[in-house]
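Chapter review: from sequence to fold.
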Amino acid sequence: MAFGQRWSQSDIDNAQAKTKQPGENKKVMGAVKQTMNGIEFASKLELYAYNQLKATGIKFKFQYTIEIQKVFKYNGETIRSIKSIVDFYLPEHNMIVDTKGFSTDVSKLKFKFLKFVLFSNPEIMGTPEIILPKNQNEVDHLVNRLLYEKR
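The token string follows.
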């Protein structure tokens, strides 16, 4: 649409269709929150990954928190800590799995910081493999890989 041009009803309808609907997850583009057994999931893909890991007996920690920056004082001001909450941490595989149907600029930056912190501080958890499945097929491939590695 050109600058100064009036919006048609079709333009308005299209713009409204692209806005977030109630119940959509504002942190993950296009994600719709899901609830199962009282557990809230950020997306259908996160729920799918949870179910696949549970069904196959792969041990994991859900919504695992990693501190990226500790709280500190700067010129008398307390600066809050920065934490990264990843979808799954698989301790037996030293692997972080974060389901990302679509990676935003914020999520890309978050993982750069996380990788830097883990690289700089291997005592936290070594240097885990970080996997970002984008769809159910990638989750299935990951689960199959982990099951094959077990043997």
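Two observations follow directly from the output. The chain has four helices and eight strands. Strands lie at 34-36, 39-41, 61-69, 72-74, 77-79, 82-90, 95-97, 129-131.
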